[in-house]
Write a structure and sequence with these properties.
alpha+beta, Thiol Ester Dehydrase, Chain A, 6-stranded antiparallel sheet, two-stranded parallel ribbon, 6 helices
């Protein structure tokens, strides 16, 4: 665990903190297929590796939203919040997918707390996320997520 905050004051104090990077994790075809099944998005670029090999990326690729969803467990590796009764994903300020994640690629998360403020009933964090692809020239995803933590 990279960082830990206990209570609203400690959460607010995280403003400007670089939370670091997670370990690398592989995005395999099984995970891509399970995401396709869960979302009913079975586009061949994701689910048909043979056909995708002849496609625009030379391989099957992960769904952009799968890449985004992996931010959740990876963020949990970087920051633990204690001393609150509830935490919620409040939304996203921006999301872009500059480079596709090919099946078999390894990704990791880099997170920085862009802002942290006290709000009615708790605290709010704006966190800048970059999902990096091992040996990739561009990131897979850049986003700013907003979280609320309630007393």
């Amino acid at each position: 665990m990279s960082h830990r905050a206990d209570g609203v004051a400690a959460i607010v104090a995280l403003a400007g903190t670089d939370l670091g990077r997670t370990e690398w994790r592989v995005v395999d075809q099984d995970r891509v297929q399970r995401f396709a099944d869960a979302t009913d998005d079975h586009q061949w670029i994701h689910t048909d590796p043979r056909r995708a090999a002849a496609g625009p990326f030379g391989a099957a690729i992960a769904h952009g939203y799968l890449t985004l969803s992996l931010v959740i467990p990876m963020f949990g590796e970087l920051l633990a919040i204690d001393g609150v009764t509830a935490s919620v994903n409040y939304g996203l300020n921006r999301v872009r997918f500059p480079s596709p994640v090919k099946v078999g690629d390894r990704i990791r998360l880099h997170a920085e707390v862009a802002d942290a403020t006290e709000v009615r009933g708790g605290a709010q964090l704006g966190v800048d996320f970059t999902v990096e692809i091992e040996h990739g020239a561009k990131p897979a995803c850049v986003a700013q997520a907003v979280y609320r933590y309630y007393r």
